[in-house]
Amino acid sequence: MQPRRRGRPGHDQDAVLAAAVRLFNAHGYDATSMFDVAESLSITKSTLYHHVSSKEQLLEMAVDRALGGLEEAAEEVRATTAPATDRLEQLIRRSVLVLAERLEFVTLLLRVHGNTEVELHALARRRDFDRIVTDLVKQAQTEGGIRADVDPATAARLLFGMVNSLVEWYRPDRGDPEAIATTVATLAFEGLRTR
Amino acid sequence: MQPRRRGRPGHDQDAVLAAAVRLFNAHGYDATSMFDVAESLSITKSTLYHHVSSKEQLLEMAVDRALGGLEEAAEEVRATTAPATDRLEQLIRRSVLVLAERLEFVTLLLRVHGNTEVELHALARRRDFDRIVTDLVKQAQTEGGIRADVDPATAARLLFGMVNSLVEWYRPDRGDPEAIATTVATLAFEGLRTR
């Protein structure tokens, strides 16, 4: 990336964000300095501060990319009138695609456990999302689409245990995201056992 | 823990290990020093070195507790003559119980990504375990017990995505481990959808 005062500021900020997230994931957020971010882009710290105001702003932007994708998916399924079971399945499938597409951002999000305002806000948004999933499971049980003998909160946690595991193992050569989304949905809703 | 030269060395080593793993999980392995471990036990560094020879030995013992539990479970199901699908289900259930019982050790294991000999050895044992799970899925498909339209390696990763998610959310007040093991097995083998 060349330092530029004019033109494509959005592009430059994306490049800065991508570089920062790579470093945060590799070495930890706390262990990464703004100097490290500047150095990895071969720009000066002063040029870096043309693009972003602080390390915390980079963290905020990164977790927003991850959460924004998941929240959009939740918003879209909320807008449909399909049975809750189908909406839940759609949300799971969409979430797998979001993870595959924004893997580095979600990886960072899932490691956020801290006590800064940005981190606490991200954790609160994660909890809101978890609540949407749990509520969908409950509604699907009320409608009779999902078996009544599972605890809704546990089911929601296990569903996203599968989805979130992508940050540990997903690579483009391990199947295309649509196929993985189908495998997750098949396992979760139909089960592995033949009948 | 009182420093003791005689009596219950095993107990003392367990206490040292538990304290070290708590610190490794809270602050990171690299960020934790032997001085930190000694201080958290209110013993001197010299007393600490009566119990363990190095920080790396503590890491090795900790990941061995986690991997040992999972490998024992794999060994036990290997010894039975049940259909592969039932052995896979048993292995999943047993793994949930191991995770709930050895949560701190498995939490540490799942964060191991480094390049020391101890870490590389732990990663190799994890890969061997993953291979056992994938092979069980394949065998179950050959026997016709598990649906043929899922990729065995992806299925194995998703099954352990669910199991391993316990390190993120399991607490004794969120259901007893046997009940969680049953929910995991129900979701994975029967699926959530009613029929």
TrEMBL record, chains A, B:
Positions of the HTH tetR-type domain: 10-70
InterPro entries for the chain: Homeodomain-like_sf (IPR009057), HTH-type_TetR-like_transc_reg (IPR050109), HTH_TetR (IPR001647), KstR2_TetR_C (IPR041490), Tet_transcr_reg_TetR-rel_C_sf (IPR036271)
The entry's keywords: DNA-binding, Transcription, Transcription regulation
Pfam families according to UniProt: TetR_C_24, TetR_N
PROSITE patterns (alphabetical): HTH_TETR_2
Gene3D superfamilies: Homeodomain-like (1.10.10.60), Tetracycline Repressor, domain 2 (1.10.357.10)
Highest taxon, organism lineage: Bacteria
Annotated DNA-binding residue span(s): 33-52
A GO molecular function held by the record: transcription cis-regulatory region binding
PANTHER family: HTH-TYPE TRANSCRIPTIONAL REGULATOR BETI, HTH-TYPE TRANSCRIPTIONAL REGULATOR RUTR
Stated name of the protein: TetR family transcriptional regulator
Species of provenance: Actinoplanes aureus
